[in-house]
Specification:
3-stranded antiparallel beta sheet, about 350 residues, about 55% helix, mainly alpha, Triger factor/SurA peptide-binding fold, elongated
Length: about 350
């Protein structure tokens, strides 16, 4: 997801010096194109967007229409400039860079459409942002980053934003916040189920990166035994699982029942592994388990499996109660963005929107 060059974290305004050098080099010799629209790097970018720069009569191009408002190519390229600097500084020249720039323009035009839709709604609701609010916000950003306003402007300029463009970016963010409060915030509902679901998702995401060790009891289905044999082996596996879950010695059960000669004498113990080394169905079950838990019978090919999670590397996520304050902030942000997206999509359905990029 493309994000605006935010004024909040100062480090995000800093473009690599090498990227700036590359961008200047890439735009050298484009005086004719610059004279047409006045956007740095226009010739190269027009080429990527399929515009023939040899046709000097082409001064503008409409890349999107929102109701009766046209979004121009020059608008798009002007807003893309800070992101272009990041691309030139991080992506090698050639097909990869062209693909990155193309993706940038596609995401950015969607953002411009959203902003136009939101701006129209703000006008209907008589919501605006004053110059005093903009200056106060700039001072807050500088204070939060422990720099002066002048230093903040310097960083913005290093990232390809003029002072006017930086103030305009602040204005957009303030307007966005006001419209979120007016149109979105009242629609949000966050409950305990939301917090627990998010916590579970975060834990499982972390577990995918952690080493773990399991033990299994593999019960082979006799070749050619048919459905009756499958059922009989499943019943045995269910009994073994029940005994292990009720406190039975898993190792002893493995030595007695497992048909896997390579592990049964070690109590079914498998090597240390990570998610991806076992079948996906088994991985998904283990991700939801705590150390010491035993699965119900799992069918895998020509066998039924009973698996115990023996150990897992320690993660960094605290338990649910300790994580709850951070979870509330995270879920609020995610819900806010989800509700905001639904609101903007509803505006699109009621407004003529045409993307021509």
């Amino acid at each position: 997801m493309l994000s605006s060059p935010s004024p909040r974290p100062l480090s995000r305004l800093r473009a690599p010096s090498r990227g700036r050098q590359l961008l200047r080099r890439a735009t050298a010799g484009l005086a004719a194109a610059l004279a047409l629209v006045g956007v740095p790097g226009l010739g190269a970018e027009l080429s990527l967007l399929g515009v023939n720069t040899a046709q000097a009569t082409i001064v503008e191009r409409v890349v999107a229409v929102v109701a009766d408002k046209a979004i121009l190519l020059s608008d798009l390229l002007q807003r893309a400039r800070p992101f272009q600097m990041q691309v030139y500084g991080s992506v090698p020249e050639g097909a990869s860079r062209n693909a990155a720039l193309s993706q940038l323009y596609k995401q950015l035009i969607e953002k411009l459409v959203d902003e136009e839709l939101q701006g129209r709604e703000a006008a209907r609701a008589n919501i605006s942002v004053t110059s005093q609010e903009i200056e106060a916000a700039i001072e807050r950003v500088a204070k939060q980053n422990d720099v002066t306003v002048e230093q903040l402007f310097e960083e913005a300029q290093k990232n390809g934003l003029s002072l006017a463009e930086y103030r305009q970016e602040i204005r957009r963010q303030l307007l966005d916040a006001k419209m979120l409060n007016l149109r979105v915030q009242g629609r949000m509902r966050i409950g305990e189920d939301d917090l627990r679901a998010t916590y579970k998702r975060l834990v499982q995401e972390e577990r995918r990166r952690l080493d773990f060790r399991a033990a299994w009891i593999r019960l082979q289905i006799p070749p050619g035994g048919g459905s009756e044999a499958v059922t009989q082996v499943k019943e045995t596996a269910a009994q073994v699982s029940a005994r292990a879950r009720s406190g039975g010695d898993f190792g002893e059960l493995a030595r007695r029942y497992s048909s896997d000669a390579s592990t049964k004498n070690q109590g079914g113990l498998l090597a240390t592994m990570r998610v991806g080394e076992l079948p996906a169905e088994v991985d998904n079950v283990l991700l939801g388990m705590e150390v010491g838990e035993v699965t119900a019978p799992l069918r895998q090919g020509d066998a039924w499996l009973v698996i115990k999670l023996v150990e897992r590397a320690e993660g960094q996520i605290p338990d649910y109660e300790k994580a709850k304050p951070q979870l509330q902030s995270r879920v609020y942000g995610e819900k806010m963005e989800q509700t905001r997206r639904q609101w903007l999509d509803s505006l699109r359905k009621r407004t003529h929107v045409e993307i021509r990029l």
